[in-house]
Amino acid sequence: MTLSRVVLFVVAFIALDAISYVHGFHGLPISPWNPNSGLAVAMLLRHGIAFAPVVAGAAIVADQLVREVPLTVSIPTEIVSAALYTAATTLLRHWLRVVPPVDKPRALTAFFVTMALAALVTTGARIALAVHLPHFETDWVAAMFLRQWVGDLIGICLFAPLFLHLGGDTFRDLKQGWPLEREGQFAVTLLMAVVVFGLEATDEFQFFYLLFLPVIWLALRGGITTTLAAMALIQVVMMAATYLRDMDDGRVTALQFLMLTLVLTGSLMAATAQARRRAELAIRTRMDELARMSRIHTSNEIATGMAHELKQPMLAIVNYVGAARRLLERDPSQVDEALRLMHNTDTQVMRADSIIRRMRDFTRKSEFLVEAVDLGRTLRDAVEMTEPLARRHGVDVVLVLGDDLPVIMADGVQVLQVAVNLLTNAIHAIAEDDSRERHIRVETCRHDGENIRLTVSDSGPGLDPDRAQHIFEPFVTTRAQGMGVGLAISRAIAEHHGGALWHDPPQPGHGAVFHVRLPIEARHEHS
Questions:
Q1: How many CA atoms lie within 13 Å of 203's alpha carbon, on the beta-carbon side?
Q2: What percent of the chain stands above pLDDT 90?
Q3: Domain boundaries, the chain
Q4: Pairing verdict, β 439-446 and 451-458
Q5: DSSP summary character for residue 506
Q6: Residues in a beta bridge with 400
């Protein structure tokens, strides 16, 4: 806790108090809006009990400069208030495990409940000490208590989380995602606030519910930081309206409760939406890692065949280089023939490189990447990768590409994984069957104007009707060495692209037929 930070806090505290103290209560220093209380709670939650004397000192100075409260009342009042809020933030940190930033639904709920009780007790202490103020009337105690408690609660519930989120990345976060949409959200928020508070026709505030529309929009799309900022904007417009239009106490009290409802609703909705996005991102990350592990497992199955495939070009390279060397050592040397052999060597090197690259790309770890994908080429790669496994089990694979197939926008590695998973499953199904017919047909066609369809059918034993309904569930497998995640991941990949994966009704003894629908333009939305 540096001196510059203490000075900055004191100046900000006094400035917020001066700005928000726009509607006194019968000459008493009781304000309906207290963003300075939110700043104090934010600093206590961040820095702990060591900051309590600074909070008390800043409040005493503000009482003298802004509210003109006698020191005999101000000193005990602000010391007690700082002590009570320090106790509340200590409870939050050490017992309820609520730490900055307060942006998760559980933490935010605990924060609201704890601070509501703390503000209640603090208000009681303030009113008890306020009896020594001039102009104090016992008939006003209930109204004073209500105004002070709700004012502190609004300031804390709205501004404490907002100040806790302030940092070097705040403005970047406010602009992140959809800049035009964000600007539109704040413009609509300001417009609604002006309509609700700035027009004589809306003096009864029957249109206050309109403010929920931009707040909900921001909560669902913008996150908690932007939602808090928008509600702070509403609060500023509201404070200005109460001052400029000299509203009566009853109307201000009604506004306090409406604003408190908006703050609690918007904050919890934004925190819940943000937590859901985080959970979806975590699930997506785990699924990507599981998909990669599945690709590695699949590549291990075909590694033996790949090794054999690599052995052929490597042996050809050795033979071509040896023959070219002998031709060059002859007298006279046969340069033209040696160059032809070296050209053949280059072809074999490219073939080996293609095999290695294909396996490397297949097993690489990567994020969801939308790119132009030639489905025909991807399927040819899938057939070539599984060809050694198919040859070992005596399975013929036929690839039939539809006419005029468009290039699709998708993640090429993930589409390749779906094709390889379906092919390896079909090969293993045929391998476990004694049927003389051992073939797989891979076919593509237009599903409709916006989608293409990939169909993989085999001559294996077909799907078991009892197990077919569970075949897409994770870790369901009939193979001793299988992971049971291939079809589950393949369906997740298809759905993540905005498509689908399904199979025809089981017909035991007639093979299995799987279909994959993929949109031409991927409809995936980044979290």
A1: 7
A2: 34
A3: 1-166, 169-300, 302-365, 366-527
A4: antiparallel
A5: P
A6: 443
**CA triple 292-296-302, angle to 5 deg:** 140
pLDDT at 526: 41
**Domain 366-527 in CATH 3.30.565.10:** yes
Which helix or strand (DSSP H or E) is residue 454 part of?
strand 451-458
Give the pLDDT score at 203.
Answer: 59
- CB contact at 8 A, 506 and 469: no
Q: How far apart are CA 385 and CA 151, in angstroms?
A: 68
What would be the CATH architecture of the domain defined by 1-166?
A: Orthogonal Bundle (1.10)
Residues of the chain with pLDDT under 70: 1, 23-29, 135, 167-179, 200-205, 283-313, 315, 348, 351-368, 474-485, 522-527
Which are the contacts of 73, defined by CB distance < 8 A and separation ≥ 6?
129, 130, 132, 133
467 CA to centre of own chain = 35
Residues 6 or more apart whose CB falls under 8 angstroms from that of 409 comprise 370, 371, 372, 373, 520, 521, 522
Closest CA to 40 of 32, 52, 22, 31: 52
- Dihedral over Cα of 34, 39, 44, 50: its sign: negative
